[in-house]
Every structure is written in structure tokens, then in C-alpha cells.
Amino acid sequence: MISNRKEMQRTRMWHYFLGAATEIMEEEGIDHVTIRKIADRAGFTSSTAYNYFKDVTHLKFFAAMRFTTGYMEDLPSYMDKGNNTLEKWLYSWECFCHHSFQQPKIYSVIFIENLGSIAADMLNDYYQIYQHDLIGLPKPIQSIIMEHDFSKRSSSYLQHIAEEGFIETKDVALIADITLMLWKGMMSTFMNQRRLYTVEEATDQTLHYIYESVIRMVHKDKQEEVNFRW
């Protein structure tokens, strides 16, 4: 009973603090989020916030997750465009690029910045509180969403692509790492305005690089089965 009460209290406090953090992000941007601002808006002290979150970086991570619902809602329909596992994987990248370049700072906080903690554990903590975010998502989609490490996420799906005979199993890890680095490189370029890409241009260029990198490793007799146009 005590354990249940503590869990209910934790859930309530997370909702208070993450709700406040989300509002501040919407009004002022993620760069202006501080523990003090969040605590003040939630009606608590900063010390209370620290009872539930390690630091402001963790709070930003969890609050940023509240801005990824559009991506999660769109992902199944994007993947449905694919006629085989490889096409579905490519369309999942299209969905991710589309949303991440629209909200670069949000996705950078979640997937690039140093959290000083194990991201997978943080993700599990988040979905313990916000379990309803996963309701209605197909099991394969849930496994993608729940895997924070993008290389592992891609490797898991790429393994099925290898089993379908499109690529060699030995190339799975390489493709996962290459595609992740391509996205991170473009995200860095985009955020630092090294090239003045629009969201659409950054998305298209990233998908072009990903497609060209992968298609070279697809068996020649299977390449004609890949009909991916973004």
C-alpha cells in the first residue's frame, strides 16, 4: 500500500513539473528552461523538484519527450507506405527526419546531448509515467519507440531486413552506425547554420544520403524491389 501511494505521488509530481516545463518550452524555448522557473510555475520549491529529477538536463529530457507525440502518431502511417521491411525502415527514417528537423533542439536534447545518465533507464522511467503514449501503437512500433539507442533501434529492424535477404547480416551494425552518423552530422550542420537548409532540404538531403548508403549494400537481385521515393 505504501509503495502504491509513493508511486501515485511520484506520478502526480512528474505531471506537475513536466507540465510546467512544457509550458515554459512553448512560451520561451528550451534554452530558457531552469529548475527554478519550472518549480515556481508548478507551485513548489526547487528543492522539491530535485527530489524527483537529478538536474535540469533530466527535466529537459523528460519534458522534450512530450513534444515527440506527433512523431509517434505519424510513424505507423509512414511505415505503412513500405511494401517490404527495407522500405518500411526507410520510411521510418523519413518520419524521424521530418519531425526532428522541425524541432531540432528538442530532438538534440533527447538523442544527442550528454545526459550524464543511462538514457534507456530514463526512457523507461518516462514511459512508466506516460504509458498511455504507447497505447494503440503496434508492437513493432512500440519496440522502436522504447529503444533510445538509435544504433540498436536500427540494428533490431535491420536484422529483419537481413533475414528477408536484402542485406548481409554482417552489414547490419555498419548500416545502423552510418545512418545514425549521417543524421547527427546533418543535425549539427542544420542547428549551427553551417548551410542554410530549410527543414525540407535537410530532410531530403539526409534521406538521400541514407538511401544511397544503404542501397549499395543491398543485394543486386533485390534492389529492384526497393521503391523508396521521398
UniProtKB/TrEMBL annotation:
Origin superkingdom: Bacteria
Cross-referenced InterPro entries: Homeodomain-like_sf, HTH_TetR
A Pfam family it matches: TetR_N
Protein known as: TetR family transcriptional regulator
Alphabetical list of SUPFAM superfamilies matching this protein: Homeodomain-like
Residues annotated as domain HTH tetR-type: 11-71
Annotated keywords: DNA-binding
Ranges annotated as DNA-binding: 34-53
